Amino acid sequence: MPGNRQVRLTARFRIRDLFRRPGALLALPAGVLLLVLAMPGSALAAGSAGPGSAPPTPRHGNARAGISLEGTVSATTEAATVDTVEAAAAASTNPLGLDVSSYQGSVDWASVADDGASFAYVKATEGVSYTNPYYSQQYNGAHNAGLIRGAYHFALPDVSGGTAQADWFFTHGGGWSADGTTLPPALDIEYNPYGATCYGLSTSAMVSWIKAFSTEMHSLTGRYPMIYTTTSWWTTCTGNSSAFATTNPLWVARYSTSVGTLPAGWSAQSIWQYADSGTFPGDQDVFNGTTAQLQALALGTGTSTSTAWPTVQKDTTGQTVKTIQYLLNAHGAALTVDGSFGTGTYNAVVSFQSANGLDADGVVGPLTWAELIVTVQKGSTGSAVSAVQSELNAGGSSLTVDGDFGTNTYNAVVSFQSAKGLTADGIVGPLTWRALVTS
What we know:
The protein has 16 helices and nine strands. The protein has 439 residues and is of the alpha/beta class. An eight-stranded mixed barrel has the order 1-2-4-5-6-7-8-9, surrounded by four helices. Strand 4 (148-154), helix 7 and strand 5 (186-188) form a beta-alpha-beta unit. Helix 2 (30-38) packs parallel to helix 4 (82-91), helix 7 (162-171) packs parallel to helix 8 (203-221) and helix 11 packs antiparallel against helix 14 (383-394). The protein is globular, with a radius of gyration of 23 Å. It starts with 14 loop residues before the first helix and ends with a helix.
């Protein structure tokens, strides 16, 4: 339609059609019922468009209907009863939620709250021209009914840059305040409902687009946006980038018996979208954590999955500064590793940020950390290994800081990972790096 490119399909592929139960709650297989009962780690989502599926419906039509789904269950072998699924959802101790768009129209939020919803995401915008005409009723109505709610933007990377779309989103509902009832703004980045799957962008261009959107939202609101996606789309269109796992909470969509493999870098999702219909209007979601963690995510005091990266700037001293200096040297700087964030270190940070398309403010925050860290493992050598050894020693190890990732360093990493509840594989990737610099 003029102004918002809205397309409505008369024939949509939906999971509930498989079970021939129009209007009923999605019948999930027994495996997912156990998973729902045992969470925190749950989630379902839309996947790649496959052979025989109908063309996709735009996000401001029915939420993510019209595409074939990752791991779609077999109706003939794994269908469970609607009553069983409802009972499982009701028994879950994890906060349940929903996401809605203009397709749902005016929502009866009092009934949604009575049915057990704790949170909701509401579509605000798409591209740089569309706004949800029901946004106020949905967003304010959810708040008035006592739900923690947030707004999301459907990305159209082929229409304009990430910065422009973040600005449009922010001025049309995509704000945030630390009131304890507002979730971080969310970026819905997924299959293109209008054309090429990846919007005609290369993987590097897509990562740059997302980074521009994320950086602008952080500048405008003080929060990095939640990223809604599917693992298959993310792998195809970003090259499975891990650049956002340390800054942006993950909202993953997968309609299957488990959350499945997550995009690179994320060890856990914050939200799992597990169905496109059910107890609540719109899509069905579950939060990966407790109610207290959901409130912390809203307040900006934490996420459901991890501790935040430290922010380090000029005149800071200590072990974390040493790590930054080692890592800058790993990227070509020639700093003296003395733990003092002076002019030389500041200039090196600014140069590194400029070279990597970041705000060149000389402050090492989450986005700079994401670019600065280097994944190392047994057999690696160099300044990044020295940084790991130095951090491990600060935590009680007695390693020689020689930049050689040998057996002793491997054993120390495995011991550290085990103590922190991480996968003890001896590989220092984003999660282990974050644990090292926040310990």
